[in-house]
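It would be a great kindness if you could assist me with a short task in structural biology. I am sending you one protein, given as its amino acid sequence and as whole-number tokens for its backbone shapes. I would ask you to consider whether the tokens describe a fold that such a sequence might reasonably adopt. The full record is reproduced below for your convenience.
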Amino acid sequence: LPEINFNSLIISLSSSALLNFGEIADPQTGEKKKDLVMAKQSIDIISMLKEKTNGNLSDEEQKFVDNILTDLRWRYVNATQ
């Protein structure tokens, strides 16, 4: 199993958002389903973690979470238009 660290948590949450954007298939069913409410919840959780860990992340971790949030927010905006 991969190492459990901050970045792996963010990857897990972003994968959940991608699943809920309907961009990746559910590993159990193989189906792609869109649930923008759940996708937004994943984005909001990542954002909350960014806020709560402010000042406690390495530069690499900070850039990583910023990039993930930017990407997911753009995907959300595009999905809701």
Notes: The chain has three helices and no strands.
